[in-house]
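Thread title: Can someone regenerate the structure for this chain?

I was given the following input by a collaborator and told the matching structure tokens would be attached. They weren't. Posting the sequence so someone can regenerate them.
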Amino acid sequence: MTRWAEKVTPGSAWTEYPRPQLAREAWQNLNGLWDHAVAAKDAPRPENWAGRILVPFPIESALSGVMQPVQPDQALWYRRSFDVPADWGDKRILLHFGAVDWEATVFVNDAKVGSHRGGYDPFTLDITEHIARDRANELMVRVWDPGDASTQPRGKQVLKPEGIWYTPTTGIWQTVWLEPVPISYLDGLVVIPRLESGEVEVQATLGGVQEDRAVWFEVLDGSKSLETSGVTMEKVFNTTQRGGSVRIPIRNPKPWTPDSPFLYRLRATVLKNGAPDDVVESYFGMREIRLGKDEAGVTRLLLNGESVFQIGPLDQGFWPDGLYTPPSDAAMRYDIEVLKDLGFNMLRKHVKVECDRYYYWCDKLGILVWQDMPSGDAYIGSRDPDIQRSPESARQFEAEWKGIIDALRNHPSIVMWVPFNEGWGQFDTARIVEFTRRLDPTRLVNHASGWTDRGVGDVVDWHIYPGPGMPPPEEKRASVLGEFGGLGLPLAGHTWLAEGNWGYRSYKTQEELTEAYVGLMTRLRPLIGEGLSAAVYTQTTDVEIEVNGLMTYDRAVLKMDAERAREAHRKLFLPPPFQRWLLPAADTNPQEWRTTTASPGDGWEQPGFDDHAWSAARAGFGTEGTPGARVGTPWDGGEIWLRQGFYLGDAPQDAQLWVHHDEDAEVYLNGVLAAELSGYTTSYEAVPIAPEARAALKTGGNTIAIHCRQTGGGQYIDAGLVQIVERGK
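Best answer:
Regenerated them for you:
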């Protein structure tokens, strides 16, 4: 449990206004204790209720008070009563659900008032014709969630959690609320900042009964009070066609950035016969995201016209007490505040969508967001073609993706949409990219984070564990590292399970973890100079048995030295160093090595060893299909030995190995052990040289020798020497 869970009561469960970008004064929160029952999927409404459940926490969570799984052949029922406040008069009554996973059918006073399919997008029902205003009303919700037994978007939820797959969420998991509106009301806003032209475009849609109305907009400087700030621009338009748009000049616009997340206030007033009839408060940021060239002609991500390196964590949004639902608004905000304090300027919301208030805090605190579509349906490998979804699965994907984008598109923090992750559910890739762009042409599209690249979208994205590494930037696509790191450290007393936890690479102490993490960030810097535009570290917190978080799952411990991490991040925004090649590897200029697969005997690593009987072969050595391999000479045996002589004009003491190994390897320089490498990498990495071996380097002739062993899966070995040089030196 987290420290916020201790403060949760039926009366305090998510009491904050749930929709900050379309806010009205009057509303009624329906969170709290409801009746619940789990029944057979096709059973009628329950006669007997099992007990109480705390909404909006999923039934599987501790905070729900139930902690019960729901199977695909079962349905979850909810029931509560509500009264319509007398001061709402004869206004129409809207019933809002922030999110229900997955299929919801809603009844008011025994009448079916609507249904919705989709676990991540909000939905609204007009229940005016079904309510009583002089007595209590009964609200029932039936939920069916097939979990991972079907093809719907579900993210990391599985019925049998293990590894990187987590406990599912069934049912209501975001705020439920009522709202009174006039007969014709403001139903939606689309706000499009146009920083370059110094204006904001506002598109408005009316809901309810179609009557002639006008809408009056005020844009206000958010740093001043409403009474004294004055109106930047007033504009009135008729909405007889249920909607319309205006462009409002913003004089001397203040750009929204992570360092200065300035938000303008926007007030929209619906006028009936010239008098205010519906008033909505909103906000926006003057922010632009696009691709462009830097001074070297490299394609970069441009924020407000400037190349800004984006660095942040993969954020999965799970909680030990609430699962998909944070215990409170303050808890949710805390995660973002920690990331800001560490010096991150971005996060990737991974195959999950949060409530609207989450993105409000990202907007207000200043952090860029890459928003994933929750994954579902079948998997494909890196070399497989796109899957063939059933028509029903494809329609559902597109309907949910549209609902998510429509709900979130006004948040300035969101700069990239990510429809597919690691090939999971990937189909009709080029068409889905264009579908996404039509829904929102103002943001970038990362078509496939991780692999299964189809050459479309705005970025080329690799996942490398632990990394770092990068794909080469392209003429029309920027290079991003969509996942890397995953350094693990289980801390006793703060894990989901006492034993059996894991990370992509594990450490024993916080000091070891910090050293490894800072090393990753240090090796990231030269890649920025080579054209890398963004990097996503795995991950914000531990999640269940996955212990590679910056924080523990309960958010009680930051697992590494904050000041050292902060300083490592600060350096990422300095001019990047460049790589000076002392001995190129196969990823830049393949070299010829002496090689053998027969045990050479003692002394093989020494400079004077006679290797004339060995074969001459071109780097690198391994099997095609091994991630990151640049195979020049096939090697598919159990062991390989390599030697090469090379010349140094001087002997720099800051030289590093540049190596890609799969699996265990030892590297020697002039007969001295330079590095022992265990496990495998999926790309070339800079590796520190042992001090004794670094001291053995000399001006003139030198020898590098490598032994690599294969244990299973792919295999590959290659190495070079590189010097990382700060610019200006």
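The mean pLDDT is 94.
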